[in-house]
Design a protein that fits this description.
Layout: H1 8-50, E1 65-68, E2 72-75, E3 78-83, H2 87-94, H3 112-115, E4 132-141, E5 150-159, E6 166-173, H4 183-188, E7 191-200
Parallel strand pairs: 3-4
Antiparallel strand pairs: 1-2, 2-3, 4-5, 5-6, 6-7
Length: 202
């Protein structure tokens, strides 16, 4: 029996083809999982609109707000790491429309120090006054129920010490907005009227 030997270059080529095929398959599988996750997240967010919707009234933050570069904002003792590709979304946080203690159920615009008492461990998102969280604003959610006076946004919250982020939605309302109001102007004159936890991202 004659054994056929392949040149080293041929063997390397075959190995590269196999590796590429495996990598391409893994990439397609990962991409499919990501797309499925995105569709599922949108469904979770949109299902909230079908439930009981109770408008909430959040005052703007009345403490000290300090912008620390392009990705961090400090609310008295709590630092928020902001991740967003749209500069308009930064206004939500720089103007105190959204602030960390709203995640603790604070409606009055107070700091973490003023709202921490009486909160259970399951409700309180912070471990200490110097804690920091990360927030990523990813997209505006279009729903047939929303008008040009209300915009809904999907965002994630990272808490130090926890691996998986939590997904929330928030509604901003601007009573003076019209059909031609641009996003920046809308946000500057808006108020936070609704916030809801959706799920933990796995």
């Amino acid at each position: 029996m004659v054994k056929r030997r392949f040149p080293a270059t041929t063997i390397c080529f075959l190995i590269s083809i196999i590796s590429f095929s495996q990598a391409d398959s893994a990439y397609k599988k990962l991409n499919e999982q990501i797309n499925n996750q995105r569709r599922q997240e949108k469904n979770w967010s949109q299902r909230v609109q079908q439930g009981i919707y109770v408008k909430q009234g959040f005052e703007r933050y009345n403490g000290k707000i300090e912008v620390l570069g392009d990705t961090a904002i400090k609310y008295d003792e709590v630092v928020l790491q902001l991740h967003t590709e749209r500069p308009e979304y930064r206004i939500i946080f720089e103007k105190g429309i959204f602030y960390p203690s709203v995640l603790n159920g604070n409606y009055s615009g107070g700091s973490w120090e003023k709202t921490k008492n009486g909160l259970s461990d399951s409700t309180n998102i912070f471990n200490s006054p110097s804690s920091s969280i990360g927030v990523g604003v990813y997209e505006e959610i279009k729903t047939k129920e929303n008008t040009y006076k209300t915009k809904r946004f999907r965002f994630w919250v990272w808490r130090r010490g926890l691996m998986n982020p939590k997904e929330y939605i928030m509604d901003l309302e601007n009573d003076s907005a019209t059909e031609t109001t641009d996003l920046k102007t809308f946000i500057i004159n808006s108020k936070l009227t609704y916030i809801k936890f959706i799920t933990i991202i796995i």
